[in-house]
Specification:
The protein has about 425 residues and is α/β, with parallel strands linked by helices. Helices cover about 20% and strands about 30% of the residues. It has 4 domains: about 170 residues, MoaB/Mog-like domain (Molybdenum Cofactor Biosythetic Enzyme, Chain A), CATH 3.40.980; about 45 residues, Alpha-Beta Complex (Molybdopterin biosynthesis moea protein, domain 2), CATH 3.90.105.10; about 90 residues, Molybdopterin biosynthesis moea protein, domain 3 (Molybdopterin biosynthesis moeA protein, domain 3); about 70 residues, MoeA, C-terminal, domain IV (Beta-clip, Beta Barrel). The strands form 8 sheets. A 6-stranded mixed β-sheet has the order 7-4-6-5-9-8, with no helix packed on it.
Length: about 425
Amino acid sequence: MRGFRKLTSVAEALQIAMKECSKVELAREIVRTEDALGRVLAEDVVAQHNVPPYDRAAVDGYAIRSEEAFSASQSNPAIFRIVGVAEAGAGRKRIGSGEAVEIYTGAALPDGADAVAMVEECEREGNELRVLRSVPKYGNVSRCGEDIKRGDAVLRKGHVLKAWDIGILLSIRMREVSVSPRLKVAVLSTGSELVEISDPRALDEDSLVDTTRPMIKALLSQSGCDLVDGGIINDDLEEIRDRLSSLAEEAEIVITIGGTSVGGKDLVPEVLDGVQDSRLIFHGIAAKPGKPMGFGVYRGKPLFMLPGYPVSALVGYESVVKPVIASLTGLPIRERQKVKARISRRVPTTPGVRHFLRVALERDGDGFLAKPIALTGSGLLSSLAKADGLVIVGEDREGLEEGEIVEVEILGD
């Protein structure tokens, strides 16, 4: 058993990890536009084509010259001779004076035409058309480039591509798009006592199912990472080293879960001793929960060491790992919604340590009442399920007083 020699502040831990991980070199990727959903644009997209690519009918009706129906009315219809039909994708027609073309929505406006009379405002007998209402120039016409003009910056670097963005890119004839790389991250659980949920032993009351690794993997997937699952490894120094060496060859970043505290079987920080291109940079952060987190380099690859308890691991991930991944991949970090609330009771905290207080929210008149669920209990997964949000208590505080107004970061939606 041993204690933490020094605690690194959360801000400093993030700064150190950012600096070390900035050495990770990732080349941007070119992917098919149809496969780019959820990817992050690596550069601005500038349109090389107009959308629509030509003047086209916005309604079903008849393409005419607007000046020839200038005074059209029910009692004084404008008369035209129908000389053809225009359909979407069927090529462009042409009209002369006194002529009209039957046209369908999306079809190119015929040369010589500058308006479309709606079918509801026309009468037809054979090839004779009577237009019963005047139509302004370019009436019922989608103009060339009215949606997107050639040279427009359509989407900006750093934009996360959504389903409708795929349609936009295809509309400007982009078959491929340049995107930020998907970071390959390996995740390994340590602990001889752990079993996978798929293991038959998981049904035994005395078994300890690995819940933290699946949670972290899910968070990494949400951040757009490709995963390498390192499974569970026993509390054995050489076994851990061998597995880490294998994972370091496969991934750009490695995350271990568990084995980071100060007990006799917490071996992960010791794994780096004497290994080439490996070093422990910090072990222990000034956070509660989350203190046992560590960070280093293993065989040249950044190594994040998260605690085994799920709430501690979540704090370490959200505070340090997630911002680093966003920096490397260009993925913007979505700020949580925040609300002001009145704390329901006094909460003591330790100066010099950042505390993450889980709270439930209740309506309190026109505002909210924040009821602390847990400040300790880093292994209590249920505290996350019960919590509506987090109150982050800064290192400069010695606690919160009953009735004090606090800022609550909303968890989930």
